[in-house]
Amino acid sequence: MTPLAVSIAGGIASFALVLVVLDLIRRHRLRERYALLWLATGTVLTVLSAWRDGLNTIAGWFGVRSYPPAVLFAVAILFIIAVLLHYSTVISRLSDQNVLLAQKLALLEQELLDRRAS
Amino acid sequence: MHVETLLQLSELRRVAIVPALNEEHTVQRVIDELRAFDPGLDVVVIDDGSSDRTAAAASAKGAHVLRLPFNLGIGGAVQTGFKFAFERDYDIAVRVDGDGQHDPAQLARIVAPVLRGDADIVIGSRFATSEGGYRSSRSRRVGIRILAAVVSRIVGQRVTDTTSGFQALNRKGIALFARDYPHDYPEVEATVMVFRHRLRLQEVPVSMRERSGGQSSITALRSIYYMVKVLLAIFVGLFRRHVIPQEESA
Questions:
Q1: What is the ipTM of this complex?
Q2: Among B184, B228, B236, whose Cβ lies nearest the Cβ of A25?
Q3: Nearest CA in chain A to B236
Q4: SS3 category, B244
Q5: Could you tell me the fold of the domain covering B3-237?
């Protein structure tokens, strides 16, 4: 069985994550579309921390008998990888768009200068 | 259209905001129909990164064309139009989709409450009466109903169609949306925003046509994602103290 202290600490930390994410959305510091994965992460981890029997059962499926919280860590790592991968795609799109913007700006500036000259 | 309405309109600077994504086959007809409704109406087409000849088709009809360098999504595209209307000092803006599903002949109904000063923003609703058989997929209709019910509850006024982009706004509405407009799937959040800013919103019944070109921006799987996202945005938005986001410091 998971040590109670681990469940409590895990639950508090995960729930705090959910609250922080919601507050960031509220302050317009985080867009909803980028918050959804974080909210899913926080919610799943909160549930797995609080629902001790469930964590035990899931650990059993994977043959983890000695230390069920290992499953909690594994799930957390999985979600973090998902968030990071998501961000990598977001950054890639942003840098593509940035190139486009710079090119467009250069073309517009050139056209403006041409028009002023004539 | 009533002569009265036309006369009132003629004294105002007015613009039609037409977001278009790959609508080369319909955008010209939309522009023609807008001019038929009101010859003095300026038209600004926002080409949201089309890969076809949408921009050229719109320019050929004498519309102002704003070409976005890449696809911003409907919210970003429409807000570009509101910014144009705000900066060029338009008094009234109507929003009509470039795919032809909104019939400009019905604009008189939508514009009337704004002209009378009864509303700051008027939305053409497909569901305000039983008139006009609006057909769309079942899941989509259910989604629209759920959102309408949630939004009605929050704003304390019955709204039936929170996803309609067939709208008219006065200067106050233009100013608000030029400054802050939601992303992706904006109409639902925008409706709540309008109420939080104490602008007056009215719905008038309209019928919409079958889409004659392009593709709906919303597919089945995406509608679930948008539903979750929009509900999240609405509920979190309710806890905002400052309804207008602070200006970004440069």
A1: 0.73
A2: B236
A3: A26
A4: coil
A5: Spore Coat Polysaccharide Biosynthesis Protein SpsA; Chain A (3.90.550)
